[in-house]
Amino acid sequence: MKYLKFSFFVCLLITSLISAQTKDITLEDIWKNGTFRQDYMDALHSMANGKQYSVLNFDRASRSTSIDVYDYMTLEKVKTIVNSNDLDAIPYFIDYAFSENEQKVILTADEESIYRRSSKGHYYVYDVKTGALQLISEDKIQEPTFSPNGNKLAFAKDNNLFVKDLISNEITQITSDGEKNKIINGIADWVYEEEFSIVKAFDWNTSNDKIAFIRFDETKVPEFSMDVYGTELYQTQQVFKYPKAGEANSEVSLHVYDLEKKTLEELKTAEVYQDFYIPRIKWTNDPDVLSAQFINRHQNQLDLWMFNTANDSSSLVLQDTDRAYVEVTDYLTFLEDNSFIWTSEKDGYNHIYHYDKNGKLIIQVTKGNWEVTDYYGFDEKSNSIFYQSVENGSINRDVFAIKLNGRNKNRLSKKDGTNEADFSSDFSFFINTHSSATSPIAYALHKAKSGDLIKKIKDNENVARSIEAYKFSKKEFGTISVNGNDLNMWTLKPLDFDESKQYPLLMTQYSGPGSQEVANQWYSANDYWYQLLAQQGVVVVCIDGRGTGFKGAEFKKVTQNELGKYEVEDQIQAAKQLAELSYIDTSRIGIWGWSYGGFMSSNCLFQGNDVFSMAIAVAPVTSWRFYDTIYTERYLTTPQENIGGYDDNSPLSHVDKMKGDFLLVHGSADDNVHVQNSMRLAEALIQADKDFEWAIYPDKNHGIYGGNTRLHLFRKMTNFISESFNLNAGD
User: Fold this and answer.
1) What values do phi and psi take at 173, rounded to 5?
2) Neighbours of 234 (CB within 10 A)
3) C-alpha span between 284 and 339 (Å, rounded)
4) To the nearest whole number, what is the mean pLDDT of the chain?
5) Can you give the C-alpha Rg of the chain in angstroms?
6) 618-666, pLDDT tens digit by residue?
7) Positive or negative, the Cα torsion across 549, 555, 557, 563?
8) Cys-Cys link to 324, which of 407, 556, 557, 706 (CB 3.0-4.6 A)?
9) Residue 571 is part of which domain span?
10) CATH no. for residue 664?
11) 428-447: average pLDDT
């Protein structure tokens, strides 16, 4: 036990006696029957009056959806904005977005997914006063967005941008050069969507007369194709632009369309950039001034530019640099005087800064050896910033308020665990979403000034009660000292755990840069699966090694230029230390992971063949040469610059070392981590004369889901673990 330092602040998941827990968890409970399904507050929106909020409700009996408005103080329903039963044109809608004055609302219907975040569909504008419903376009469109006054909206179709006047119904086409796999206007290309987390790449100014957008020229980007097998006699192909590490990116440019002058202008910086990205654009409170974040291809220098569209000038107001990489901020906020709030890791931890409109630092608002993990907004009246951070330990999240001058910090959330906040528009109230390893998701209304509880809204106690009948084990949180670092860790043991016996060990991890798997929050579907494995006699452990997030930039960025080196070393060493525990069977130690986690589990089995007897890799990266530019080069630079960083830590370079049982799984239509990765690994294993199991799920993407797919996948993995660990033979 000398390596383990447990702080058992998380106790039993339930309070009932162990003897009352009689039911086994089944795979069907998790992925078919919805036994542990929780209730959520969907599409929560604070109304402009600050006294009410709206949510999207679904009535199973009538199979209708509605936008319902509730009073913050009483939590009682005040009115229904619209119910799909009252609409002849659409049977239901799945999302909504209000105009700024809340007199109109966009209803989303008949939506189809494109990639991870993008979709297209039929969208309708509903007039709250008149009840009139208007289809925006007969064709499926993307990202319809109201102008600030709600009289117009912009949208994308067939890689071009359009504006619709909601009074005259006239549609104006802003661009005309859009073409599939060549030019995209106002919508992110594949790699921006995946790695910069944006789809909509256009923005209205505050006076409703200008739209700024990013234009993507994909002409030089290599194409990737995937067979789509479907049900027809001949398969088809999906062909799209995908820039792999070291290859050409889209050439991006910044443009502004003037609705009054009907002119289109390209904006240029005073500095000439080569091979760069524009991950964010945002108008300031000045309707003529647009901000844009430019970042170089290595992503270690981020520049914030201001473009004055009235006099065609530009100025560089802020530059953030790092020896490794700079995180793009999503929290840029312009105050009334056009000073702005910014987040940066420049002092070694992610914190909030306040700059004047010219980029001169006014104050670092938050400080400490902890990370700001979310930013909720700034209240002009109270001069307060509201944010989320890990000040209460890196596995917890709390909601805080602090004055703009960095004083009078106040913790608003009251319970340990994971707290998230949704504030009323006037920052009088916030709805706190809380969960922990012992408490399902619960929603409660609080005062924004003090954090005091006003009233509980929804607590999912039915889920907590339902698990009382099942064999749930406790989740023990602690740390383990590995390679000179205290790493966060949780452990799940069989309910009838006996320290005098020996158990197989399964390690689960993701391990990617800035990620976190060890968190004090309620269960995901995978966590229920770990409970199922525990009830079958497996000890399950999760460890966040070096390179993971929320413990400072140095801890996170130690893996720079060598992805898969330190992370693999930590998991292998941790397994060796865990193997010294008397109750761990050293001949039965396995590891599994998905995506980056699959890259890791493959490497751990191959390079750690003296400790791991089994691994499962789902949708793994097997060589970073096969992955996209933005993600990969952020951490490794290009293959041309860093040959060793790409090849030395690739599972393909270590197949000859494999000794244990290996299951390899991939979806054939994975547009993110291409099935090419697993095909190359399979071929390498075959040529190395290594036996392994594998499965390809036809036409399934990176998530490998749909219909019976998840149930099938996890049954396959469960059976593989059972056979590898010889669970049926008893322990």
Assistant:
1) -90, 120
2) 6
3) 9
4) 95
5) 26
6) 999 999 999 999 999 999 999 999 999 999 999 999 999 999 999 999 9
7) negative
8) 557
9) 4-34+464-729
10) 3.40.50.1820
11) 97
